[in-house]
Design a protein that fits this description.
316 residues; alpha+beta; ten-stranded mixed beta sheet; globular
Length: 316
Amino acid sequence: MAHGNATTIDVLLDEASATAPKTYRVTADAGFSMQRLGPIRHNYHRHPLMQLDRLEQLAHSLMATGQCRFIVPGSTDASKFDHHSGPADGRSIADVFQRIQEPGSWIALYNVQTDPVYGRFVWDVLGSAERIVQDQERVFDVRGFIFISAPPSVTPFHIDREHNFWLQIRGRKTLGVWDHRDRETVAASDVDEFISSGSLDNVHLTDAARGRARHFDCGPGDGVYFPSTSPHMTHTDASWVTPDDGVVISIGVVFYSDVTRRNAYVHACNSVLRRLGVQPVAPGARPWRDRLKYPLGRGVVALRRRFRGYTPPPGF
């Protein structure tokens, strides 16, 4: 796997490596492809940096930089993917973790790679998958998102720009994922808009789409890989909870690649074509068209930057 910023990673603090023998790894069945969703396995649930007490330390650090998120109470899988930078009841991080096993508790730690130790950790996770990725794409801008909750809880339906190695660390969670090419679940025009502007306003879960998802019931050591723009959601129930164990932890190690970057510029070009009344095909459907659209998309983004003050979302 080609790394985009190996020099930076090499100088990060070494806690992750010191506590992470090379036996920590992500594995998958033969035939793994970065362009297809599927189950994976791992043993990072045993890693010291993935234990609840260590994650509480991380949460204190990230709260100070505005990188903790809290879901709107009462959210369902079909709710708007909306969250806030502080708990609705105003409690402190210490209180959040003291009461983390209360039903419906939910906290997400965003961009954990901004912590030097966890920055090294997410690269270690991705590096451990090198044998299954086998240089399929050139990787850059690796990030980590950790979700901690207590059943019943959900992460609403949405799409992301990045590829995702999603790992279940503690407890049980069901992940529902749709094929990233499923344009009945999320229309092509809405994917273009999301990649170009970051808007999820038109990305909604419909009853008609529910039957097209693949559902993965995950416990510690389970995981799922899914490509950029794959619709997904999660939910937990209390069927497995015991008096001394009711916390769910998962981490998404997400990243961009030369393919996601190329596709981003194709999406930008498609957005312009739609305004001109053209109905373009999605990235990947016609590779020769992508080769034409890519420089056009780069030109569109450059012009918007220069004359409209446009700041592209991550991934360009």
